[in-house]
Design brief:
The complex is a heterodimer. Chain A is an alpha/beta fold. Chain A has one domain: Nitrilase/N-carbamoyl-D-aminoacid amidohydrolase, CATH 3.60.110.10. In chain A, about 25% of the residues lie in helices and about 30% in strands. Chain A contains 8 helices and 14 strands. In chain A, the strands form 3 sheets. Chain A has a 6-stranded mixed beta sheet. The radius of gyration of chain A is 18 Å and the shape is globular. Chain B is an alpha/beta fold. Chain B has one domain: Rossmann fold (3-Layer(aba) Sandwich). Chain B has a 4-stranded parallel beta sheet, with helices on both faces. Classes of the chains: A alpha/beta, B alpha/beta. Chains A and B meet through strand 10 of A and helix 1 of B.
Chain lengths: ~290, ~270
């Protein structure tokens, strides 16, 4: 298959989700897992391959954060990854040392032989079993950026559970919202899977439908420190319809064609995007924020 | 509080398999009492690791638990597990000959720790990782012997209430004679948990679920027609046993201290 230069040249693209179980604290081994999946995806002519949150490091790092952090501009493993993204794009999760001693939970979008965007997680869950604010700095912005497949935005796990994150990407022009995750399953009932899975799927469906974007959610699996990552990765189309879904708990490699023309189709039928008024939202926010008492 | 037992079984199988392989173990070992929790754990281990990789220890004291020993042996045969019977009477009796007591609690705790000591010895001999069998109900109530039946490497059943384990057991087809037994910690002959706690597990679990899982206040739970004295009793047991759910505290003196700010997951680099 030919390499695809710009999104006007094709309507369908092949997405792959690597629902993996990274090895906690082992950059080298996780790098190898990434290489294996990249090769596997290349054989299937995948255009965009997504790995979960902190896919290169594992999630429950605690004090290992500073030991496993890399600067993507100079790290030799990242140089090798850059060398692999000429024909295929991919998203990986890692710990970034942005400045000396400043660590972020980051996602990098590799495409056309370079890193075209890095998103630094903004909403760092620090409650119950989560303690990310203890170890990571907070990102500052949600960017919509240009990819070979149209404008896209990236979110990391808890970012996605704040509807304003996806709203900002929508308003910024994103047509593809990529959420990478290391979400532990919580809550058992007589249903299949964890109760918490519903929360992700509900958000995926709603964001896809009302922001008329493809929502691509890649979660991980496996156990760390007793936490069980729930899997259940999914793709919703811009009409809020489920396109594909991975199983809960088990590793999976999900490959699916999506039709980018659907973005136009749904946006023509219901002009949410055309009629959105970010300037009104902005003015309302200013008033609300001005009235804060503490 | 109902569970989907198929999903829970799959999850716990995966947990057992994954934790063992992280630490390069292929075999698991556990104490089989003839009761429900250890039976369910044995079933899970047998399915997760294969029967050949599961070793069970049956550790009776004198003739006290004759029927349980037989049930444990039957279960090991049924699942095709390798088992050892280790009579703990000589060790326990030798100790109490020197430090005699009439206290059933002291005797029961000594037996629980004797069993722990043998499990750890066999764990090393057999190169097998110890699977714990403590359930969520007893962990929350502190209804267990610290460094005794609580001691293990991994605890697959620790987030399931007793009544949920019963549901899982029925699904896994644990024999009726084990399912129908009155739960006992085996501290002395004729003891049952429910008589000692003064409450049925069905009741305890419902209250614990409200308190712990749903984070409801005491006031809210009592207003939902749970008897005040039961709720207070359970809260008292939870608070009184907090120490059993922690590693011993260390006074912080240095810049970086184990248990305070030397923070790593237990499966670091695994």
């Amino acid at each position: 298959m030919q390499s695809r230069i710009n999104c006007d040249n094709f309507f369908t693209m092949k997405i792959a989700l690597a629902q993996i179980s990274p090895k906690l604290g082992d950059l080298e081994q996780n790098f190898q897992i990434h290489i294996d999946y990249i090769q596997k995806a290349k054989k299937k002519n995948v255009d965009l391959l997504i790995f979960p949150e902190l896919s290169l490091t594992g999630y429950t790092l605690k004090d290992m954060v500073e030991e496993i952090a890399v600067d993507p501009r100079t790290d030799p493993l990242f140089k090798k990854l850059v060398g692999l993204c000429r024909e295929m794009s991919f998203v990986v999760g890692f710990v970034e040392e942005k400045e000396k001693g400043l660590f972020y939970n980051s996602a990098a979008f590799f495409s056309k032989g370079k890193i075209i965007h890095i998103h630094r997680k903004i909403y760092l869950p620090t409650y119950g079993m989560f303690e990310e604010l203890k170890f990571f700095g907070q990102g500052k912005n949600f960017h919509s950026f240009t990819t070979p497949f149209g404008k896209a935005g990236m979110l990391i796990c808890y970012d996605f559970l704040h509807i304003s994150s996806s709203y900002l990407l929508f308003v910024g022009g994103s047509e593809i919202i990529i959420a990478i995750s290391a979400a532990p399953g919580r809550g058992i009932s007589d249903d299949d899977g964890y109760a918490s899975a519903r929360m992700w799927e509900l958000m995926g469906e709603a964001v896809a439908h009302f922001f008329q974007s493809f929502v691509i959610y890649c979660n991980r699996v496996g156990f760390e420190d007793g936490k069980s990552f729930a899997g259940g990765s999914f793709i919703y189309n811009p009409g809020g319809q489920l396109v594909a879904k991975s199983p809960y708990v088990d590793e999976d490699f999900l490959v699916k064609d999506i039709d980018l023309e659907e973005i136009r189709r749904f946006r023509k039928n219901r002009p949410y995007r055309r009629d959105e008024k970010p300037e009104i939202t902005l003015e309302a926010f200013k008033r609300i924020v001005a009235q804060y008492e503490d | 509080m109902k569970i989907n037992p198929g999903f829970v079984e799959k999850l716990l199988n995966r947990f057992i398999k994954e934790e063992l392989s992280k630490f390069d173990f292929t075999k698991g070992i556990l104490g089989l009492s003839g009761g429900l929790d250890s039976a369910v754990c044995a079933y899970l281990a047998a399915r997760a690791l294969g029967p050949k990789n599961v070793i069970v220890l049956i550790m009776p004291y004198k003739e006290m638990f004759g029927r349980d020993v037989q049930d444990a042996k039957d279960l090991a045969h049924r699942l095709g597990l390798k088992f050892h019977i280790v009579d703990i009477s000589p060790m326990v009796d030798a100790y109490f000959a020197i430090h005699p007591t009439e206290s059933r609690i002291l005797k029961g705790n000594k037996m629980a720790r004797e069993r722990m000591s043998i499990l750890y010895d066999f764990s090393e001999r057999e190169k097998a990782l110890i699977l714990g069998t403590s359930n969520k109900t007893e962990l929350l109530l502190g209804y267990s012997t610290i460094h005794g039946d609580m001691a293990c490497a991994i605890n697959p059943l620790g987030d399931l209430y007793k009544t949920q384990i019963r549901q899982l057991a029925r699904y896994m087809k644990v024999p009726d004679k084990i399912l129908k037994k009155r739960p006992t910690a085996g501290l002395w002959a004729g003891q049952t948990d429910e008589r000692e706690l003064g409450l049925r597990y069905t009741k305890i679990d419902k209250i614990l679920y409200q308190l712990v899982d749903l984070k409801k206040s005491k006031k809210e739970i009592i207003s939902e027609r749970f008897p005040k004295k039961d709720v207070e009793k359970i809260l008292g047991l939870i608070k009184g046993s907090e120490f059993k759910r922690h590693l011993p505290p260390i006074p912080k003196i240095s810049m970086r201290t184990v248990g305070h700010d030397f923070l790593y997951p237990y499966d670091r680099d695994k």
